[in-house]
Amino acid sequence: MRLKYSCERGEGGFAIIDVIITIVVASLLSIMLAQFMGTGIINSGNPFLELKDDYALAQVMERITADYRNALETSTLNDAFFEARDTAAEINSLYSVSVDSVSITATDFEPDDPIDPVDYTESGSDNGIRKVTITKNDQTLVSLFTQ
Hints:
This protein has four helices and three strands; from the N terminus they run ααααβββ. By secondary structure, the chain is α+β, with helices and mostly antiparallel strands. A hairpin with an 8-residue loop joins strand 1 and strand 2. The mean pLDDT is 83.
């Protein structure tokens, strides 16, 4: 038994308009996908850069803390320790890092409720408490140093 296929005019294949519509729809979908995925791919490394900055700040603060402990053990601590570390340039040269800004302030904490001192608010200035803030890009690390 033989099957006979016939292809008469207008019955076989796709029309050119079908191909053009398919190409246009595929192009629009690919453009939307590229817009959606493009920013995600470009910014996908940002969390790693922020983590790197955070790690660098933690290392600097650990080194400052270690120097502070050594200074407490070897001598009476005075303002010279913090004055040698109160600018980003001094921190960068002392610890071979790259931080954007450094802030060292004398601070004090008072209880919000004197009867039940659970929460404290930063207020006043006490030279016995130093608040050290270091910043790199969008990352900030704050530590308190006491005598």
